[in-house]
Amino acid sequence: MKKNKHIFLLAILLISLTISGIIISNNINLPNLFIKDGVLLIDRVASYPLSFMENNDLKQENEKLTKEIEQLREYQYENEELNQEIKKLKETLDINNLLSDKQYINASTINRNLGYWLEKLTIDKGTNDGIENNMAVLSNGVLVGITSNVSPLNSDVLLFSNAKFPMNVSVKIIFDDQEIYGILNSYNDNLYSIIGVVDNVTIPPQAKVMTTGLGNIFPSGLFIGYVKEVVTDNFDLAPLVKVTPATSFDNISYVTVIKREEK
Predict the structure, then answer these.
(1) Is 33 inside a domain boundary?
(2) Which residues lie closer than 8 Å to 19 by C-beta, 6 or more apart?
(3) Which domain does 152 fall in, by range?
(4) Looking at the domain assignment, is residue 237 inside a domain?
């Protein structure tokens, strides 16, 4: 029995020595192994919230950049709109330079009722600015109407696009160094009609139509439009000249009010 116990103890001793030799020969340090595994575990646990925070920061940065891009787009649209406004103002200023023989007053549209869109609009100038009733009004350098219901601070503009408006404007049709006179008297289906022209002259398309200055309202040389065609009246007796307006009545933001210069 004692002998067996000695053999068992000897076996345990040999196994312990063998394991120790393996550990020593491979430079393995058990405490270091435990410490290393612990550090790796702690690093993993610590790095998870850091990784989460980094992803969250990237998400916030992405959202911020997206908002900035949207703002830039809004600024771009606003810039385009402002460029259009500047272009219109420049056109108005160029028109004024051409009208040096006349008195002119620049104004902006402040009201336009949808129910009367093609009949009238309201501008931000009145008698305090020298405006009176029955003054010629231009948009983009083209005659579009006359002033009416003038108050100290604003005025109405009766538009020629109003089919009920009795114009009776003395005009001349200019082509090939010729001038044919007539009366601009109505507007229908986006076209003016000129009556009273002679019937022995062939008027070509695209001939210019301008005011003559005859009468007490419109100075000479105000542009109106271009000839589209010449037809006959309802009785097939007299020529009727159809004229396309040189500007649109739908978009009138700025106008120039013209006054005959006192002689």
Answers:
(1) no
(2) none
(3) 104-134+141-162
(4) yes
CB atoms within 10 A of CB 197: 20
Considering the domain architecture, whether residues 43 and 87 belong to the same structural domain is answered as yes
Residue 27 lies in a domain: no
Distance CA 213, CA 206 (A): 21
DSSP label at 167?
Answer: -
CA distances (Å), origin 107, targets 48, 118, 139, 228: 66, 19, 10, 31
Task: Give residue for tokens 């950049």.
Answer: 65
d(Cα 244, Cα 232) in Å, to the nearest integer?
17
Are 239 and 199 within 8 A, CB to CB? yes
Segment (H or E) for 44: helix 30-98
User: What's this model's pTM, rounded to 2 decimal places?
Assistant: 0.65
Same domain, residue pair 240 and 175:
yes
Block means of pLDDT (10 residues each) for the chain, length 263 residues? Answer: 52 54 49 49 51 66 72 65 70 58 86 93 95 93 94 96 86 92 93 91 94 84 94 82 95 88 56
Q: Backbone dihedral region of 95: left (phi > 0), alpha (psi from -120 to 50 degrees) or beta?
A: alpha
Domain count, the chain: 3
Q: How far apart are CA 173 and CA 179, in angstroms?
A: 5
Distance (Å, whole) CA 149 – CA 155 = 6
Residue 259 burial (CB < 10 Å; 0-12/13-18/19+)? Answer: middle
Whether 211 maps to a domain, the answer reads: yes
Residues 208 and 224 both lie in one domain: yes
Mapped onto helix, strand or coil, the DSSP state of residue 135 is coil
**150 vs 148: CA distance, rounded Å:** 5
Residue type at position 212: T
